[in-house]
C-alpha cells in the first residue's frame, strides 16, 4: 500500500487499541495489541508520518533508531541484588531500566501524555547481540525486565533486504505477533502531501511530467544511486530559501539531494526552464487578468512539457493564494472567539460595576491564556505549523489592541468594547479582500486556460491538479466557481466513460 493508506491504517489501529469500555479497560487487551511493523524502501516517509500521526491523534511520541544502541542501552545494565527464597538469601542478576523505556516515562512526565507511540526505526538492522532483545520486544513489549508503559503502542519500521545488507529476517513466530504493513512509494499519494506542505511548484510540475523519477533506487558499479521522496522534499525547502537569498540551484546543488546523476541533471535543466517560463509567460500578469495575445500564440506552438510547466506555475500561485486566505480565515475565527470572551468579561464587569476588570487587564489575561496554550501544546509536541501561526498571530493582534486601548485611554468597558469591535471589523475586511483576490485570480486563470487551450487535455490536467490540492479543494467548497463545477463534471463524466470502456475491454 502507499504511504497515505499506511498512515490511515496506523491511525485506525491507534483508535482501536486505545478504545476503552465503560469500566476504563482497553477493549482490545494489551496482549492482543499487535505492534505495527512498517516495511518499505528508505526515504518514502515512514519516519515522518509518525510525527504527523502523533500530532493528529494528540498523543505522545518517542522515536529511536535502534542501530544507534548497544545491548546495554536497550536492555539496561546488570546488577546483583539479594532475594530470599525458602528462607535462604540468593544473589540474583537484575537489570537497570532500559534507556528506551525510561525515555517513555520521561516523555509522560514532560508532556502529561499518558498514551502514545514508541517508534523504533531500522528494527531489522540490529546487531547480532541485540537481535534476541528485539524479538522479545516485539513479542512481549518489554526491554529486558521492563515493560512499555500501559497505553503506549509500538510501531517499528524496517527496510527490505535489497536496500540494506544488515537486514535480518524475523522468524514466523515473531511475524505472527505483529501487524505487518508493506509500504510502496507512490507519487499520487505523495502529491497530496506535497500540496499541503507547500512543496515547491517546480518539483511538483516536474514530477507530474516524469512521475517515474519520483522514486528510483539503482545499483551500479559505483554503488547505489537514488532519488527519494525525502530528497525531493528537502531539495524543495532549499530551492525556496535559495530564491529568497537570490542564489542559483544548479546541477551540482541538485545532486546533493537527488543522488541519481541522470535525474539530477534532468531536474536542474527543467528548473532553469521553469524560471525562464515564469518570466516569458508573465504569470503575475495572467493572475491579474492581463492576457497577451502574442503569448497565447507562443504557447499554442510550445512543447507539451512547456505547457505543463506554465500550468504548474499558475497552480503554484493559486495554491499560495488559497493557503494564505485559509490561514487568515483560521486566524480571524480564532481572534473572534477570543474577543467574544473578552467582551463577555467586560459586559459582566459593567453589570457588577467592577472597576478591577479594566479592558487592558482583560486583554492581558486573555493573552496569557493563549500563551499558556501555545506552551502546553509545544511541550506535548502536538502543535502543528498552521495552528502555531494562528496562535502567534492572535497573540500579536491582541497585544496591538491592548496598546491601542492604552494609547487612546479607553479605560471604561463600554468604550473598549466599541473600539475592539471597530478594530476587529478591519480584520474581517482584510479577510474579505484576501478572499476576493483569490476568487479573481482563479477566474483570471480560467480565462487564460480557456483562451490558451480550450477544452483540451491541458484543461483536464489543470482540473485534476486543482482536485489534488487540499487548499484549492477547501477554497472551492466555499466559493461557487461556475467553470470549475462545469469542467469538473465533464472530467468526472470522461473518467466514468474511460473506466467503463476499460471494464468492457477486460471482459
Automatic annotation (TrEMBL):
It comes from Lactonifactor longoviformis DSM 17459. One of its GO terms (molecular function) is ATP hydrolysis activity. Signal peptide: none annotated. SUPFAM superfamilies: P-loop containing nucleoside triphosphate hydrolases. It comes from the Bacteria. Keywords: Coiled coil. This is ATPase family associated with various cellular activities (AAA). Residues 36-129 form the ATPase AAA-type core domain. Residues 410-437 form a coiled coil. CDD domains: AAA.
Amino acid at each position: 500500500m502507499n504511504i497515505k493508506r499506511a498512515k490511515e491504517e496506523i491511525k485506525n489501529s491507534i483508535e482501536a487499541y486505545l478504545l476503552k469500555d465503560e469500566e476504563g479497560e482497553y477493549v482490545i487487551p494489551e496482549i492482543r495489541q499487535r505492534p505495527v511493523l512498517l516495511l518499505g524502501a528508505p526515504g518514502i516517509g515512514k519516519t515522518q508520518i509518525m510525527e504527523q500521526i502523533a500530532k493528529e491523534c494528540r498523543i505522545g511520541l518517542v522515536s529511536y533508531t535502534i542501530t544507534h544502541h548497544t545491548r546495554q542501552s536497550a536492555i539496561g545494565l546488570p546488577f546483583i541484588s539479594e532475594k530470599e527464597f525458602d528462607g535462604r538469601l540468593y544473589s540474583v542478576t537484575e537489570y537497570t531500566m532500559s534507556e528506551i523505556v525510561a525515555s517513555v516515562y520521561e516523555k509522560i512526565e514532560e508532556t502529561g501524555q499518558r498514551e502514545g507511540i514508541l517508534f523504533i526505526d531500522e528494527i531489522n538492522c540490529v546487531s547480532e547481540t541485540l537481535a534476541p532483545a528485539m524479538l522479545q520486544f516485539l513479542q512481549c513489549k518489554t526491554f529486558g525486565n521492563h515493560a512499555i508503559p500501559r497505553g503506549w503502542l509500538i510501531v517499528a519500521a524496517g527496510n527490505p533486504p535489497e536496500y540494506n545488507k544488515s537486514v535480518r529476517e524475523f522468524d514466523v513466530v515473531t511475524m505472527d505477533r505483529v501487524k505487518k504493513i508493506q509500504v510502496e512509494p507512490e507519487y499520487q499519494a505523495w502529491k497530496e502531501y506535497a500540496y499541503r506542505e507547500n512543496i515547491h511548484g517546480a518539483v511538483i510540475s516536474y514530477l507530474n511530467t516524469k512521475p517515474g523519477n519520483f522514486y528510483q533506487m539503482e545499483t551500479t558499479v559505483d554503488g547505489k544511486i537514488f532519488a527519494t521522496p525525502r530528497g525531493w522534499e528537502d531539495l524543495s525547502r532549499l530551492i525556496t530559501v535559495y530564491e529568497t537569498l537570490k542564489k542559483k540551484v544548479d546541477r551540482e546543488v541538485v545532486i546533493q539531494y537527488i543522488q541519481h546523476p541522470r535525474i539530477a541533471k534532468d531536474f536542474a535543466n527543467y528548473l532553469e526552464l521553469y524560471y525562464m517560463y515564469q518570466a516569458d509567460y508573465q504569470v503575475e500578469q495572467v493572475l491579474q487578468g492581463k492576457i497577451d495575445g502574442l503569448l497565447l500564440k507562443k504557447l499554442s506552438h510550445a512543447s507539451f512539457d512547456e505547457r505543463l510547466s506554465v500550468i504548474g506555475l499558475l497552480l503554484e500561485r493559486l495554491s499560495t493564494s488559497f493557503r494564505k486566505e485559509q490561514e487568515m480565515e483560521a486566524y480571524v475565527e480564532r481572534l473572534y472567539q477570543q474577543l467574544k470572551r473578552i467582551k463577555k468579561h467586560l459586559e459582566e464587569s459593567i453589570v457588577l460595576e467592577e472597576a478591577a476588570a479594566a479592558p487592558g487587564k482583560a486583554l492581558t489575561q486573555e493573552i496569557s491564556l493563549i500563551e499558556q496554550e501555545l506552551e502546553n501544546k509545544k511541550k506535548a509536541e502536538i502543535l502543528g505549523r498552521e495552528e502555531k501561526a494562528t496562535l502567534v498571530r492572535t497573540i500579536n493582534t491582541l497585544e496591538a489592541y491592548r496598546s491601542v486601548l492604552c494609547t487612546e485611554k479607553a479605560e471604561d468597558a463600554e468604550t473598549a468594547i466599541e473600539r475592539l469591535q471597530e478594530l476587529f471589523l478591519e480584520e474581517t475586511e482584510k479577510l474579505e479582500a484576501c478572499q476576493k483576490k483569490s476568487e479573481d485570480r482563479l477566474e483570471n486563470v480560467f480565462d487564460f486556460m480557456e483562451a490558451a487551450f480550450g477544452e483540451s487535455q491541458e484543461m483536464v490536467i489543470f482540473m485534476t491538479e486543482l482536485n489534488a490540492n487540499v487548499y484549492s479543494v477547501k477554497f472551492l467548497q466555499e466559493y461557487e466557481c461556475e467553470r470549475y463545477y462545469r469542467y469538473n463534471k465533464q472530467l468526472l463524466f470522461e473518467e466514468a466513460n474511460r473506466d467503463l470502456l476499460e471494464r468492457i475491454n477486460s471482459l
